[in-house]
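User: My instructor asked us to take a sequence, write out its structure as tokens, and then describe one feature of it. I'm not sure where to start. Here is the sequence I was given:
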Amino acid sequence: MGTLDATSLVIEDQPQFFFDDGIVESVQNLTRVIHRPEKSEANPLIKKDRPWEHFVYFGTADFALWRDADSGQFRCLYSDWKFDRAKHAAHGGSIMAWDYTQDTHLYACSDDGLTWEKPAMGLIEVEGHDTNGVFGGAGYGSVWNMTVLDDPLETDGGRRYKAMHSFIPADSPPKAANDQEIRLAYSPDGVHWTPAEEPPVFGNLKNRLSDVTIVAFDQATQTYLLNTRHPWQGRAPRVPSTDVWEVSGGPRFDRMEGVASRRNRRRIFQSESRDFVNWSTPRLIIAPDPDLDNIDDSFYGMTQYDLGGQWIGFLYVFHMVENYNDVQLVHSRDGRNWRRLAPGWSWLEPGPPGSWDQTQAYGVHAIPVGDELRIYYGGSWCHHDWWYVGQYEGLQVPEAWDDDEVRYGLGLANLRLDGFVSLRANAVREGMLDTQPFVAAGDRLIVNAACGHDGYVKVAVTDESGAALPGRGWDDCDMFTGDAIRHQVSWRNDPSLPMPADQESLPSATPYRKLKFLMRNADLYSFRVVSA
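Assistant: Let's start with the prediction itself. The structure tokens for your sequence are:
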């Protein structure tokens, strides 16, 4: 997005973050810091451990995880591939052809989000076992690339949960992986699913997309957003080469220079809908940039979350040569126009050699719990595609030939709530932040901040010209020296946030105010103005 206009300064009670400089007028002796989450020592939380599980798959868009708003229970749907690698190696073609792969979604649940159970559901039986399978398989067809939404607009309890998924009918001939039939399903609980009779329509693409579909809901516009791939994304004409073999890891080298879209590279498209059935034709929203990204980097998918007026996006970057994915951050103020935060910098990366997630980290599901944000993610021991196309390509890597080398799981990392980015002052010099003049009707100031040894944060409240309001200067502020997600700022024990006395210029509107932060050895993550 370009320059922000005056309406962005009407902040009301929305949290103000520092992903960009939208609320910042000036700073001195402050630096912007992006914070990584800390991985749990209990990982992986879910892995293959049942006799009916084949290749459990926690890929970019191949598992869904949420916390039920009514019961508080954590729920997860994850993919299980019954994949015949030898048959695929002998005949080639799409790995998702029914003759090679029958994909079923399995269910796990947890009361605390840490210890997970796989209950027998009475829905899908495998070789005499009552399994935790809930959707897909021989009775329906392959269900993969399934995204789930707890729909805040739905009034029919039986359709409260909505899912979109790629579909391969049972006993069907092979389909091209980049031109999938997309279907919808509905559920009262996110576990028991009924396929929809009406297929979704994506503008002039009708019922076809490429794989990787991830849905979000925009509360401000009451609109469904879908981040996906366009089935034509890799079909731009290229000069053929007789000495380069196009393999599954990605398209041949794109000879175009200075083209930010990298026209044949994986990238992110977005579609919108008012009813979850009729969608706009997907448009490009973010793509690899030759000035920022490596020559083999592509964007595999993107999940986005509304933080309350601003959005954070988890961008899954596929490094094709080394065959792994990591997570980088992007930011938006409207959920549609995106900017990258520290391009090329891995916010969530695979673990060290020998760890359970040594080659993959992707598919983020972010759930607030208390004062932390839980980052659930998919990880793996094996590389992205070497394990399933390795025999076909003749790759001499253990995971291509040994099923025990194919290990995926669910991981957890923890982040401070709203703790993605902070403005930081060190212990040597005081740092100062002047906000832009803003409009907010509230009379209390809440800050998310953390102070180190001898660190502090003080705040002055001023009118739009920068003149301190009576009793609200730095010297009046009760110094904050702690670490809190929701600290209420006060001045001589008075937390009220007054308005400027002179309102003649805006007789019928809330006047502008400014904040001036003074900090030492401290991080300021966000602030918001609320009503008592």
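For the description part of your assignment, you could build on this observation: The two ends are 34 Å apart (CA to CA). Try explaining in your own words what that tells you about the chain.
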